Amino acid sequence: METKFLSLRHPVELGSRFDDWHVCWLGGWDKHRQFYLVMLVKVAFKKSFTNRPVPNQSRRKKTGVNRKRRR
Prior knowledge:
mainly beta
């Protein structure tokens, strides 16, 4: 597991992502509130995002809401 620390100008939420890096620890502001310290862990993806199917989209033509299908 690869980790690194990062000093940011603005606070971030736990779980935020920076490219392949994922925020796993929030250290808070430094002594003079100039930098927000976080720890990142590198996330390895098995599949690339460009080749994965988009969720909730089927190939079938969708009918309108509350519309009956014609046979």
